[in-house]
Design a protein that fits this description.
The structure is a single chain. Among the domains are: 62 residues, no CATH class; 99 residues, no CATH class. The strands form 4 sheets. Strands 1, 2, 3, 4 and 6 form a 5-stranded antiparallel sheet that branches. A 4-stranded mixed sheet has the order 5-10-9-7, with helices on one face. It is built from 16 helices and 13 strands. With 411 residues, it is an alpha+beta fold. The longest helix is centred in the middle third of the chain and has 22 residues. α2 runs parallel beside α4, α7 runs antiparallel to α8 and α11 packs antiparallel against α12. Helices cover 50% and strands 11% of the residues.
């Protein structure tokens, strides 16, 4: 009402002020809810072409800036988890959190001369995931024209991953696994993790000095390229070497230290890439197959993009849609070098998204389409592209391949 009142007085007023006010109100509510509600805001902040900039800017705070738990509640959480207060476990423990995000908050501590980061999960987060998704489900089904029981596999995939992120013992195991497997990649650092000071709701690791990737300001193109190349090598090595990937690439999960090294600090969300998905997915990504109609159609069927109940018109429509999407989205994968600072590339992505968002033909068709594995693999690629675009990094695309002969298979 305030906006439209001002609009009457000033007809030239644009919607930016309205977006800013709405974004602030929505975020203020989400940050009090925490958990999967705030996780959704965090995910949306990475989709820069999906929301107005005011929402992207506000929701990005979910990556590392959320109201923390009170001191007494922190003490109670430790007592419930370990039967001891923090002062009994650590030499020093700062009750005031230094970082608070969607699922937990981080405290600084020390023990035996080591400076530590202690991540504490918000109480009740794991228990609320099912009810949170139940609220989201009817909205998502309407937005994406999803129909019938077949849609349940997508929601189950999201619920499984969100629940995994609340299991800190699983994160501990995954963190140690990835640290061991990727330690040979240059300019990439990881903290050590401490089992005796961790459980399913509290995770203790080395304190790592650095700035969050979103706050990192490269002083030169060389510095931007170095960090960007480390990020690219890290993800491509996981994709092609481990067939298991860190599926939550947002700035809050990475630091840059004074030596210009990239530090990865959160492995709660890992996605295993099954071989029957990996094969056709990267066949589709290979530019050599774009003009091979038989190879393209074979992969589309294997990836469940084309369905047995599709009409000829639907098969034609989705084959053409994915052909145009593939050429654009996989352009970085099919180059020798790629400039993620290229604004034209991201404008093309935005334009293609807008075209199909307005497609009345698409809205009439069944949205239950594609393997459930697309959800987190595509999220990983788009998140990675977004981080590299923010860095304006120029990448040597195949540089990661030199590290593949040192693959450490997952334990």
């Amino acid at each position: 009402m305030k906006y439209y009142g001002e609009k009457m007085v000033n007809p030239d007023l644009d919607k930016e002020k309205l977006n800013q006010a709405n974004a602030e109100d929505i975020y203020d509510s989400l940050k009090e809810l925490k958990g999967s509600a705030l996780k959704a805001a965090q995910m949306l902040s990475m989709e820069k072409n999906f929301l107005p900039s005011a929402y992207v800017e506000k929701f990005s705070l979910a990556q590392f800036s959320v109201p923390p738990l009170s001191g007494p509640l922190v003490q109670k959480t430790f007592l419930k988890a370990f039967g001891k207060f923090p002062a009994e476990l650590f030499d020093t423990f700062n009750e005031e959190s230094v970082n608070a995000a969607s699922i937990g908050q981080v405290h600084k501590a020390s023990k035996d001369g080591k400076t530590l980061a202690v991540k504490i999960q918000y109480p009740g987060v794991a228990d609320s995931i099912g009810s949170d998704l139940a609220l989201v489900k009817p909205i998502a089904m309407k937005m994406f024209n999803m129909k019938g029981a077949d849609s349940e596999r997508y929601f189950q995939e999201v619920e499984t991953k969100l629940k995994e992120e609340t299991d800190y013992l699983l994160e501990l195991a995954q963190s140690k696994e990835i640290t061991q497997a990727c330690k040979h990649i240059p300019n990439l650092k990881f903290p050590n993790y401490y089992e005796e000071l961790s459980n399913d709701r509290i995770l203790t690791m080395d304190w790592m000095d650095g700035v969050h990737l979103s706050q990192f300001k490269p002083t030169s193109q060389v510095e931007a390229d170095k960090i960007g190349q480390s990020l690219w090598n890290f993800y491509m090595f996981q994709m092609h070497g481990l067939k298991k990937v860190h599926a939550d690439p947002h700035p809050g999960n990475f630091l840059v230290n004074n030596e210009g090294n990239l530090i990865a600090i959160d492995f709660g969300c890992m996605k295993i890439i099954p071989e029957d998905f990996y094969g056709p997915y990267f066949e589709l990504a290979n530019a050599a197959n774009f003009s091979n109609k038989d190879a393209l159609n074979k992969a589309l069927w294997e990836l469940e993009i084309l369905r047995e109940d599709d009409s000829e018109a639907e098969i034609k429509f989705f084959s053409e849609l994915f052909s145009s999407m593939l050429e654009l989205f996989t352009r970085p994968l099919n180059a020798e070098n790629f400039d993620f600072g290229d604004v034209a590339f991201f404008n093309e992505i935005a334009a293609l998204g807008e075209k199909y968002a307005k497609s009345s033909e698409l809205r009439k068709m069944n949205g239950n389409r594609g393997s459930k594995h697309f959800l987190y693999i595509n999220r990983t690629f788009f998140g990675l592209y977004s981080l590299l675009h923010d860095l304006k990094a120029k990448i040597e695309v195949n540089a990661f391949k030199q590290y593949l002969n040192e693959v450490h298979q997952p334990v």
